[in-house]
Amino acid sequence: MNRIGTFRAALVALIPIVAIAFGSAALAQTPAPAASPTATPAPAPSATPVPPPAETKSPADTPAAAQTPAPPPIAPVQTADPFGEQFTLEPKKVVVMKGTANWDAAFDTLIESFKTLTALLDKQGIKASGNSMIVYTSTDDTGFTFLAEIPVDQDPKNLTKDMSMGKSPDGKALKFVHRGSYDNMDNTYEAITNLAVVLAAATLLAPSVLAQTTLPAAISVSGEATVSVAPDQAQIEGGVTSDAKTAREASDTNNAAMGKVLLALKGAGIDEKDYQTSRLSLQPQYAPNRSGPSPVVGYHASNRVTVRIHDVTKVANTIDLLVGAGANDIGGINFMVSQASKLLDDAREKAIADARRKAEIYAKAASVTLGEPLSISEEGSGVPMFRSGKMVAGGMAAAAPVAQGEETLSVTVSVSWAIKAAQ
């Protein structure tokens, strides 16, 4: 049997099917050709008594034919296990090289990939921590793609564009161990191909088997709960807008004014990581359009910074600081809760209780009883923020009144309970 043809057929069948059957990557391990034919084991000692040695004859009395040794017996061809050996692959850190091969040069391409990886590791003094492997990723009429992988304990450097670090396949797999010389490899390939045919038939039957599978009877409901807390953080947006006849003049004026605002924030002891430029723009201003194109009559520059405040009682003082430093554009104020998820823990317990209350109502109406919960999942819970309207500073004489209020945090859970007939 032609080995390349069989090898190709095995890959075509196994790549899509074994992954479905076991839920993990299909891994084929082929040992390197033996350096010499497998030695035939010596025959076991006979239990029959050994007769006394015959009388020794001189070389002249011995026929020439008797001196010719008998040819060694031909070693029997050993077949592979037709069903493979099931085992579990443990994930290992590997250096990976992607490759593509055509069927005529498949073996040579795989060997060259390992030579390239080995040369890289040898140059950096890194030793392999396990057996090399090939993972076949796709196949077609012309050839296949693959990943050549060598387990390592440390990451090599200077990887080429077709190399990367990764993790070897893990999970359940079938291992076909080839026994005998390399010339008898066809037997192992045939075993893989035969199993692929069996798995293909099982895959065709899978939809009907799945269709007969019944899900456990259950009641699925959602529960909700809320908690109200005072915000402990706030964000303020403030900046400077400038108008001038030319773009240069508008930009220079705006930069100078904004520089004073940033110095004021730093001088007030606000950490530099708590304020960040959020908008910077320079736009032309046009004359009212009466007829024809509108001419540019000036430029409008804007620079705004976002300030995070960790003490909400200092919001009004921070606004006064910005205005006093020259800010004439104060934007929205956002109040936030910094540890919303932790504060929602009590609400989560209440949400589960709410879900059970609903489930019991449905169970009573259906004349069944609730069993153990089958699944519990939490839906996305947003953290609401209070947003004030935009304020434009215009020489504020008194401290700006700010009301922080409360934030209402909510959580929703989905729970499925098993049900059974009422006793």
Any descriptors?
five-stranded antiparallel β-sheet, single chain, 423 residues, 7 helices, alpha+beta, 15 strands, Alpha-Beta Plaits, Multidrug-efflux Transporter 1 Regulator Bmrr, Chain A, Translation Initiation Factor IF3
Structure, described:
With 423 residues, the protein is α+β, with helices and mostly antiparallel strands. It has 3 domains: 3-32 and 77-202, Multidrug-efflux Transporter 1 Regulator Bmrr, Chain A (Alpha-Beta Barrel); 218-229 and 341-384 and 407-421, 2-Layer Sandwich (Translation Initiation Factor IF3), CATH 3.30.110; 233-336, Protein of unknown function (DUF541), domain 2 (Alpha-Beta Plaits). The chain is 29% helix and 30% strand. It has 7 helices and 15 strands. The chain has helices at residues 3-22, 106-123, 185-211, 247-267, 315-324, 340-343, 345-365, and strands spanning 27-28, 85-89, 93-102, 133-139, 143-151, 163-167, 171-175, 218-229, 233-244, 275-286, 296-309, 329-336, 368-378, 386-387, 407-421. A 5-stranded antiparallel beta sheet has the order 1-4-5-3-6. A 5-stranded antiparallel beta sheet has the order 10-11-9-12-14. A 3-stranded antiparallel beta sheet has the order 8-15-13, covered by helices on one side. Helix 1 packs parallel to helix 3. The longest helix has 27 residues, at 185-211. It is flat, with a radius of gyration of 39 Å.
Helix content: 25-40%
Gross morphology: flat
Distance between the termini: 67 Å
* Strand fraction: 25-35%
For the report, how would you describe the main beta sheet?
5 strands, antiparallel
How many extended strands?
A: 15
Coarse structural class: alpha+beta
Order of helices and strands: HEEEHEEEEHEEHEEHEHHEEE
Return the average pLDDT rounded to an integer: 76
Fill in the CATH topology of the largest domain.
Multidrug-efflux Transporter 1 Regulator Bmrr, Chain A
The CATH architecture of the largest domain: Alpha-Beta Barrel
Rg is: 39 Å
